[in-house]
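Q: What structure does this chain adopt?
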Amino acid sequence: MAALTRITSYNILAQCYVRSSYFPHSPSSCLKWKARSRNLVNELAGLDSDVLALQEVDQYEEFWQPWLVERGYDGVYKSRTHLTKSKRDGCGLFFKRDKFELLARRDIEYNDIAWGRSVGYVHPEGSPEPTEAPVEADGGVNKYIRDCVGVLALLRSKTATDGYVMVASTHLYWDPAHADVKLAQARRLLGEVELFLASNSPIKRSVPVVTAGDFNSVPGSEVHSAMLGGFGGRRLRSAYAAAIGEGLVHGTDGSESSVTVGKHGEPAHTNVTPGFTDCIDYVFVDDGVAVRSAMPLPGRDEVAAGLPDATRGSDHLPLTVDLELWSR
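A:
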């Protein structure tokens, strides 16, 4: 059997968004950065994934980059844009340097939708970026200016011949009242993935695709459906849902674990707070990728009070899957 690649997608909750008023269910001691950072690195170290797709990464240069380097990771990071004076978190893709090398990257700024910029747009070198958002006829800021971002990376395996994979990490807009904005961002992401592959594919056969992140969209939503529809004739599927359907959710000892199943075969929850509990995080893969296992998620009773808690540093849960990327 070919070697497996473990991939984790995790919104780690940027400290710049942590307020006791936002998380009144969490003891104040659990919200302090010292406690949260300790829990987060313990979680990530325990998973020991080959590739990490992280969202809401702040304190990148001060904390996360040194820790990741020490743990054997290289990677790419894309900070949010700042037209709405947003907090300075971002999305990252990090990979074990003894297993992969970076061949190409592409940063995605979903604000480009507001300006009508084509997929693959590159800002002219030396030209200043706009400092004010475009406005609508009524004087309001264009609804597509949300400062959301993503990052794509083409990786080459150091252990498998012709072992290439394209991985994406993204964070779509949160507000359920703007489902149209999220759908436009999802479609942009798919278009960017298709063009990135066409521009950078080093081999004639299809390069496996893994698109991960916090999509802020529940199963069965237009965003979920769009992602499953894929791009350029290549359909995608949810790796964790596939693992559930095939009985491949396994604990660290290899034994099969139960998982609470929600809508459309997805896990019942990846984000857990008293005000909102549902599945909004996904790892989408194309049909050429074999899903071999997934790490279990805690049941609702285990996180009944909501997250973060004394052992989990984010309001999200890490989605971890073991994939056979070059099996077919």
